[in-house]
Amino acid sequence: MLDRNVALTRARFAALASGCALFLWSIAAFAADKYDLVGKPAPDLVARGLSGENVRISEHRGEVVVVSFWSGSCNTCRAQLNALDRIAKTYASAGLTVIGVNLDDDQARAEKFARAQDVQFPLLIAAPENTGRDFQVDRLPMMVFVDREGVLRAAHREFKASDEAKYVRELRTLLNE
Amino acid sequence: MFTHRILLAVLVSALFAAPLFAQDPQPATPQGAAAPAPDAPPPADSPASISDAPVGTLIAPPADGTTAAPPAEGEPPADTRALDETVQDLKKDVVDLNKELFVLEEELLFPANTQVAVFVSMDIGEFFALDSLTLKIDNKEVANYLYTPREAEALLKGGVHRVYLGNLKVGEHQLVALFEGKGPNTRDYKRGANLKFEKGVGAKYLELKITDRQRKGQPEFAIKDWE
């Protein structure tokens, strides 16, 4: 009888502990999902592109800009860059600009990866160290949408091929503004 | 039996935690409740305020038919023009205020007696295409600027770029400028220039001048002190 009570107390304690852990984890997940930059002016960024030319985001004021952050060691990044290339080709004439920004420490690997991509938009290799912090990049791939006024309007911190239509819808809304 | 209870506890916790995972949680609106406009005032003749009404109660409009008729389609209300003028005046005031604040900020942050500014200008640019510039004052890097093709083009058209604005104490200082870009025959080109200058009590303005030396077919980098 005593053993049963001890076992029951232990089980209750374990259940309470797991519940608390789950609760704390969910709070942490919620905090991680928070993205403060939406609705604020997008941070500026200038870096050297693969072709050797420097690209500055603020020079594209008046256009809708998609900034895609990628890494050479991420397969989903490849899918995101390809999807963005398709979208860019369709909506470039409407004022859409896509810029890919690499956040790898290993520039040689990033350059090798970038050269293997068949995309038309600029891929920036040597981004300044503070880029990830400025744009609050906490996972890759990630992309942000900047409207014609230079305001950061949306952030997608993961890429799903099935969501491509949703991305296009959001971009069309920004292009129509 | 115990395992079932544990599973139940975890499931209950998960149910409580589930709404937290939603990226954009929307406040739940009770079904049947009227959704008032955020800034709409309550009807003046309502017996009690909307906040006093129990949740789920429909707020009825005034029954005496005193509600203002909506303006005819395509016809703006009479006071729209005046409102528009007021908004424009306010916008102008904001712009003026912003300008004044900017000047004030600059005067406070960089007072004339310690102010040092460095400008970049370019001549024809036949022998050099500017890509980046690094500035060091007293062996400390104070600026590093990457020029986009549009910015470089603007410099070639006569633009002057203020690449650095800061404070320095009175005395002797050394400025080193490192230029990177494409030189003659579009080869990578890296050059430096330095200047020892005396900072007096007034503001100091220095100009980095990139010119073409036609005779040698090379660019020339000079630092000019504006007295």
Describe the structure in brief.
The complex is a heterodimer of chains A (177) and B (227). With 177 residues, chain A is an alpha/beta fold. Helices cover 43% and strands 20% of the residues of chain A.
Q: What's the number of domains of chain A?
A: 2
Secondary-structure arrangement, i.e. CATH architecture of the domain at 115-226 in chain B:
Sandwich
SSE order of chain A: HEEEHEHEHEEH
Q: What letter string, H or E per element, gives the SSE order of chain B?
A: HHEEEHEEEEE
Instruction: Provide the CATH superfamily of the largest domain in chain A.
Output: Glutaredoxin
Multimerization status: heterodimer
CATH class of the domain at 115-226 in chain B: Mainly Beta
By CATH, the topology of the largest domain in chain A is Glutaredoxin
How helical, in percent, are the residues of chain A?
A: 40-55%
Compute the number of strand runs of chain B.
Answer: 8
Task: Break the fold down into its secondary structure elements and pairings.
The complex is a heterodimer of chains A (177) and B (227).
Chain A: H1 2-33, E1 46-49, E2 54-56, E3 64-70, H2 75-91, E4 96-102, H3 107-116, E5 123-126, H4 131-134, E6 142-146, E7 152-156, H5 164-176
Parallel strand pairs in A: 3-4, 4-5
Antiparallel strand pairs in A: 1-2, 1-5, 3-6, 6-7
Chain B: H1 2-21, H2 80-109, E1 115-122, E2 129-137, E3 140-146, H3 149-156, E4 161-167, E5 171-182, E6 188-199, E7 204-213, E8 218-226
Parallel strand pairs in B: 1-7
Antiparallel strand pairs in B: 1-4, 2-3, 2-5, 5-6, 7-8
